[in-house]
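Hi R.,

Here's the chain you asked about this morning:
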Amino acid sequence: MLGKIKLWDLRMSKAVQQYEGHHNEHAYLPLHVNEPEGLLLAVGQDCYTRMWSLGDGRLLRTIPSPHPAGKDSIPSVVFSSQLGGRRGLPGLLMAVCQDLYYFPYNSDYQDGSLSAESKRD
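And the predicted structure, written out as tokens:
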């Protein structure tokens, strides 16, 4: 069962959804749920961030880290529907080493693509 992400219904004591494609064998890695957008995001041991549909478990996006994969460069991610305040834009922030990346998101993301905009400190 190592490395699997599952949604459990505690009333029935069973898994009701599995999110395929996550790579994790032993580490505790970032996982983020955004209920308003219906998204689950997780960073794998391979340093890829994966985005699934929370409802049906479909893998929507796989985002590679802009840095080489390694134990010292596993990204931290957070998703917000309103980056920058109430009228802000939805998107994913990814921090890796000393860098911060922004991946925009819109409601038709399933047919489009995410692109990174980098900001260096």
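The two ends are 39 Å apart (CA to CA).

Let me know if you need anything else.
M.
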